[in-house]
Every structure is written in structure tokens, then in C-alpha cells.
Prior knowledge:
Layout: H1 2-16, H2 19-24, H3 27-41, E1 61-68, E2 72-80, E3 83-93, H4 96-99, H5 101-112, H6 124-141
Antiparallel strand pairs: 1-2, 2-3
Helix pairs in contact: 1-3
Amino acid sequence: HFFSKIRIIWVIYGISINYKHMKTKTHLPKLYITLAALTLFSCKPAPLTVADIQLPNIANGVYTGQAKNINEAFVRVTIENGRIVAFDIEKLDATPFGQKAKDSIRVRIIRQQTPYVDAVSGATEASNTLINAVVNAITKVSVHVP
Length: 146
């Protein structure tokens, strides 16, 4: 996700430019604003990992998973009697906006008994990274028991 990294760099760079300097070069403000806008809106959120998850077929235990896109997440999911009873986020490397997804996603997954919950507004990347980490943890152990 090259454009995502460029997007962050341009936003930081655009904010840190000295406004007085920009006024002396009339073409620079338009250039920085155009490049920042292009990079901000050219990226799509991390795609979700899609899997057929059958919680009743997963053995009791604690399972770990990770996912990485712009953000990185390490999670621990506890399954008991075919239900997600605990979901701990060991690590979430995300922006301050992304950090706000931690509690909401945890509660939603446990309450709805599926990793496929709605993303937190303003923290879509971090939400999708957490969801993918849970899916990765569960699908590593998912076996179809007759």
C-alpha cells in the first residue's frame, strides 16, 4: 500500500510547511493541497479476509492471530463451547484515530459472536486490521467436525 504511506507523509509534510514560505511561492500551496488530496482519497481500506467460520466446530482454547496492512494487530481469541468468550488485543499499531477502534471492535465481536462486525467510524483501517487478525486466529484452527 504505497499510496497509504505516501498519504501520511504528504499530510504531515503539508501541515508542517511554513505558511509564510508558501505565500511567497504562489504555486506551492496549490501543489501541496492537490497532492495531499490525491493521496488522501486514493487509498481504500484494508480488504477483509473472508472465511466460512463455524464457531461450534472450533475446539475450546485460546488462539492467536495477527494481521498487517497500514496498521498491525496481534490478538488472542478465547473460544469456549462454540462461543467467543474473550478477545484480547495484544498489540495494535495504529494512529490515535485507529486506537479508538480497540474497545468498540472487542465488544462488537463478543456481543455479535462473529468477527464480521461494522468498522468504527474514522478508524476503518484499524477496525479491518483487528477483524482480519481475529479471522486469522480462528481460521488457523477451524476444522469441520462431523
